[in-house]
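Hey team,

Sharing the 2-hydroxyacid dehydrogenase run so nobody has to redo it. Sequence (322 residues) first:
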Amino acid sequence: MTPVSTRIRVAVLDDYQNVALSMADWSPVTTRADVTVFTDHVADAGELVDRLAPFDAVMVMRERTPLPRNVLEVLPRLRMIASTGPFNASIDMAAAEELGIYVGTTGGSVASTVELTWALILATSRHLVAERQAVAQGLWQTAVGRELDRRVLGVLGLGRIGTRVARIGAAFGMDVVAWSQNLTPDAAEAEGVRYLPRDEFFASADVLTVHLKLSERTRDLIGAAELAAMKPTALLINTSRGPIVDEGALIDALRSGAIAGAGLDVFDTEPLPAGHPLRTMANVTATPHIGYVADRPYEIFFGDAVKAISEWLDGPGIAERD
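Structure output:
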């Protein structure tokens, strides 16, 4: 009778570009465990449980696949989660601790998100996608863009990403203003930015860019009232988290012309469902949550994840079982 292998099994989830194994040296793991890479996304909780049932450890890329309590509780073999980035709000950390599941995190880089924010600002203000499509169709100069110089850049959240976005706005000659629930005038001034009260902030921005963490306080922070207060020529840019903006209110505002356009990298449901209006609206520049999808962040993510899994394999009670 052939013995059944009981080697440690590791799953890598949502590797859309199929690059996980090439972005880091996995030999510290693969010499002691079997690694299976999944390039597709499973949204259904039941299907996810079926997929993960044979695995001892799982690596998740950011928040692509949530791991709530109802999933973790029915995965008795799971003992380790490697999550890219320093924090993952989609993992039930309390449940993981109660169930004895170790969660390892990684470093990261904010530069790629800052860069994508400005790519979306420029693409949306200058209609780059539409003009590129027009050139491919044999057309020429179909829209009039908006110059950013001396316009107001509203930065919602002046943290690690927001401060860097603000500095670039100043370099473009923009009047940079900021507001958030915790921001003070002194803290804004220290970053060379003007603080504005909430109502004035939304009413003043020509470009409003979102850089907050998602929490109960920030969920739907930008709703119908805030969008109605904005200029009809304003652009909304969101590279943070979709639910910070009320998606239904945003679609209504874009359809009615309450605001001129949006550049969006994040959405309530990801991947964005087929047929979703934000996929095809003419005044929306949409990208598939690629703020962190760049070479250096990936090298950090996967390299640190390998280290975290390897250290877990070195831990007490973990050994290759043949």
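The chain has twelve helices and twelve strands.

Ping me if you want the raw files.
A.
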